[in-house]
Amino acid sequence: MSPFTPSDNKPLFDRGPSLGTRAVLLVVLSVALMFLDHREGHMDSVRRALSVAVYPIRVLVDMPSAAFLWARESLAERARLLEENSSLRAESLRQRVHLQQMVALEAENARLRALMDSPAKLADRVQVAEILAVDLDPYRHRIAINRGEYAGVYAGQALVDADGIVGQVIRVDPLGAEAILISDPSHATPVELIRNGLRTVALGVGDVSRVELPFLPNSADVRVGDLLVSSGLGDAFPHGYPVARVTRVERRPGESFARIEAEPTAALNRSRQVLLLWEGGEAEPLAVPADTAEDEAATAADTEPDTEAETTAEPSGTAPRGDNP
User: Fold this and answer.
1) 3-class SS at 294?
2) What is the tens place of the pLDDT at every residue in 101-116?
3) Superfamily grouping for domain 92-278
4) What are the extents of the domains in the chain?
C-alpha cells in the first residue's frame, strides 16, 4: 500500500471567504459598533478597560520626556534658589551691620539732639567681600579678601561682620587686599564704653577670643558686661560699631593700671564674609522757613563787623586728624 493514500491528499489551508467579502463584513461590523456606541454607549466599558490596560505603556513612553523636563526644572530651580539664598544672606548681613549702631545711637540721642538740633544721618556705603585665605602664622592675624583697588578698596578701610568690627585693610592689590584683625598683637582699636562714654584703646594679644584694655586706671568705672564700641577717633573706624564686651576686670593695688580683658563681638575666626565700609555720613541741614531766614539775614547785616571780629578771634573747633584717645 502506498504511504500516501488519496485520503491524505488534503490542502494545507482551507479556503475561506474572499478578501472582498471579509472587508465588507468588517465595514458592516464597524458601522454597527459605532451606531451602538453612539446611541447607547455600549463601548464605554470596553474603552475604559482598554485605557487601563494601555496606561502603563503610555507612562513608559512618556517617562524619558518627563524625566528630562523634571531634571531641567530641578536644576534651574536649584540655581535660582542658590542665587536667591546668596542675595538674601548678603542683604541680611548688611541689615544686621546697620542695626549694630542702634545701641550707640540710643545712648547718644539726647546729646546729638542738643548739639545738632537734628537726628543724625547714617549714609555709609558698604560692600560684601569674601575671605579667601587666613595667615597661618599664629602671631599674625591677617586675612586676604577678594576685593581690591578696582573695587575702590583703600588702605586703612574698616571691615565688619554681622556682629562687630573685624579689622582694617593694610595692603591693597588691584584684585584683592590684605587686612589685619583687631586681635593681632600689633593692632590697636580706639574704643569707648557705651555706658559712660569712657574712651581708651583695645589692644590685640594674638588671641581671637580676647583683647586687652591696658591703659585704664584702677579707679576707672568699668564693669564686666560693658559694651565697647568704636570711638571714631583717629579716623580708623566709623563711630558706634561694636568692638568687644568686657569679660574681666582686675583692680591691682599698688599698680597704676587695672587688668581689663574683653571678648570681641565679631566672629573673627568663623566669618566667611565681611563688609567693607566707606564712611560718608553727614547731618542734613535743617530747613529754615522763609520769614525766619529773612529776619536772620537782617540781623546778620546789622551785626556783620562784630561777627567778623569774633570769627577771627575764635580758634577752629575741628579736631586734627589722627588724634589718639
Assistant:
1) helix
2) 777 777 667 555 554 4
3) Rod shape-determining protein MreC, domain 1 (2.40.10.340)
4) 92-278
